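FORM 7B: Structural annotation worksheet

SECTION A. Query
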Amino acid sequence: MSQTVKELMSIMVCYVKPEQTLDECMALMTQKRTRHLPVIEEEKRVGIVSIGDVLKHTLAEKELAIQNLENYIAGEPAI
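SECTION B. Predicted structure
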């Protein structure tokens, strides 16, 4: 390929702050059609969150909710 990175890169980068929710991250990723978001705090990059990170956490929450509902139905204590 003869194109340079500069020709393909995004200039207006979307980012999130550490206090934003995962729902906000997912909405921004969906809206902007991106898979990664830098995390910015006090004008410094402190990390990056990927769509995989968000989905992994969301699935873990749903699995815990399902397990708690199954335990409730079975008369067992919640996790």
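SECTION C. Observations
The chain has a mean pLDDT of 93. DSSP finds three helices and two strands in the chain.

SECTION D. Sign-off
Analyst initials: ____
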